[in-house]
């Protein structure tokens, strides 16, 4: 299981003293994650794809969000979900490139859909992908 502090690090959120908590991350999401967190996660997951961030927040909405510097709570939740699965994939594969390969390649256990698409689609999809990652990590069938 990925720690909430790891998700906050992936999002590029500043460290809070003395300890970051799950509730601190929930509050950050509800108050609106910075637009920079979206840019950061998009660069981490798809460094060669300038359009990837628009899969998480539509382009017109992204342009509006740049003026307020904050994402909506729904957009932030989706971004945090992607960041959490990215962190899990990196933990399992121990390599950004291999984590990307896993996330962007169709997988038989999710009806040959790409894990990243399933994660973006819903929280339930993210749990399915996290389950696959845990199976790989702990050596059960995946």
Automatic annotation (TrEMBL):
What sequence ranges are listed for the domain Antitoxin Xre/MbcA/ParS-like toxin-binding?
89-139
The Antitoxin Xre-like helix-turn-helix domain covers which part of the protein? 26-84
Report the InterPro entries cross-referenced here.
Antitox_Xre, Xre-like_HTH, Xre/MbcA/ParS-like_toxin-bd
- Pfam families in the cross-refs: Xre-like-HTH, Xre_MbcA_ParS_C
Q: What is this protein called?
A: Toxin-antitoxin system antitoxin component (TIGR02293 family)
Organism, as annotated: Labrys monachus
The organism that produces this protein has a lineage beginning with: Bacteria, Pseudomonadati, Pseudomonadota, Alphaproteobacteria, Hyphomicrobiales
């Amino acid at each position: 299981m990925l720690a909430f502090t790891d998700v906050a690090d992936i999002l590029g959120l500043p460290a809070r003293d003395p300890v970051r908590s799950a509730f601190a991350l929930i509050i950050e999401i509800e108050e609106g994650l910075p637009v920079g967190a979206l840019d950061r996660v998009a660069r981490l997951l798809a460094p060669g794809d300038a359009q990837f961030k628009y899969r998480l927040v539509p382009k017109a909405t992204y342009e509006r969000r740049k003026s307020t510097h904050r994402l909506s709570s729904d957009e932030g939740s989706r971004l945090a979900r992607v960041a959490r699965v990215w962190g899990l994939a990196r933990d399992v594969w121990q390599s950004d490139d291999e984590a990307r390969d896993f996330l962007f390649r169709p997988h038989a256990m999710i009806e040959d859909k790409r894990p990243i698409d399933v994660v973006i689609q819903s929280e339930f999809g993210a749990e399915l992908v996290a389950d696959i990652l845990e199976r790989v990590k702990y050596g059960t069938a995946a």
